Amino acid sequence: MRVLLTAAILMFLLMYPSLASTPVSATIDFHAGVVGSNVLHPGDRKEVTILLSCEVTGGLENLPINENTSAIIPMLTTAKSVVLKPQSSIIRAESGTVVVGDLLCGTARPVNIIVEVDREVYEGRSELSFDVDYSKAVLNFDGQSYKLSFSKQEGRIDVEFEIKKKEYDFEIVSVSSDLTAGAGHSEN
């Protein structure tokens, strides 16, 4: 009986590291806002700068603390190969797909896009939505060592704009003419 109990305990101890290992990866949340005024007018076509950032909202609770922790944290908290894909809306992003690159959580990156607003839009708040494709690092323990892999992720961000009509309702049009002063006028 004692041999059987010892064998069971030994087998459990050998299997424990692989059973206890859970992948460690950060939960990343994206945020975006317009730099400067977020007011657009019907018919506008202009470049706007969006400030894109991300933050870690969890997932690192099981991160092993050792001499390598400070080196691994930046890898786990970076959204790699970030790509923004605009979705259709009354505000259209003419820029199309935007490649942002790597974005370390806690930092912000300006992204310039050209937007066009429908002429027949109503006043009020509107959003330009983007699908966010990125990769993130996953730390796996195989019983003897840690291995780093990457998994593809998807997210979504909404950038809020305010649509307001212009305070004036006219356009300046350039007109040219062939008229000459005093020509065609005769006096009797």
UniProtKB/TrEMBL annotation:
It comes from the Archaea. This is Uncharacterized protein. It comes from Archaeoglobus fulgidus.
